[in-house]
């Protein structure tokens, strides 16, 4: 007679994962995301190696809606270098865009992502923004008294800082001088091909 296999009950989500799922559904605030970030474990730069799916979090920030409106997919990181912005290519794949040529500040000020036809206009210029060269560096740095992984955009005053939600997910805060508060997002590790 074979031994019976006990069906394991699904593990309840961690408090951090539960917070993320609620933030995805109902939104959050930048202050709440920053407070949550402070409760999470830091991340070592090597842990970010790989391809990551982006999860925009609506946090009452000027960037709310902009990234997903234009097809943001996430980030790709290898060897301490990163493609900071991966976008849908319109054919089912994704491309890395040269962040130095993206007029993010102008797009936010003009609320361009809310214009009718903005997606079509972006699709028309997307090919001219593609790069094959990484445009950010991943390293350790201090953030609010703790050392964690940061992604510094090259030639731009933008820094993403990361903290661990769980084994496959990190919370990111994007700091840029154009904004009073950081933009909150999450990254979920993409499965290996």
Automatic annotation (TrEMBL):
- The GXWXG domain extends over 37-92
Domain of life from the UniProt record: Bacteria
What region holds the DUF4334 domain?
135-189
Which Pfam families does the protein's record reference?
DUF4334, GXWXG
- Name of the protein in its database record: DUF4334 domain-containing protein
Instruction: Write down the species.
Output: Cognatilysobacter bugurensis
Source species taxonomy:
Bacteria, Pseudomonadati, Pseudomonadota, Gammaproteobacteria, Lysobacterales
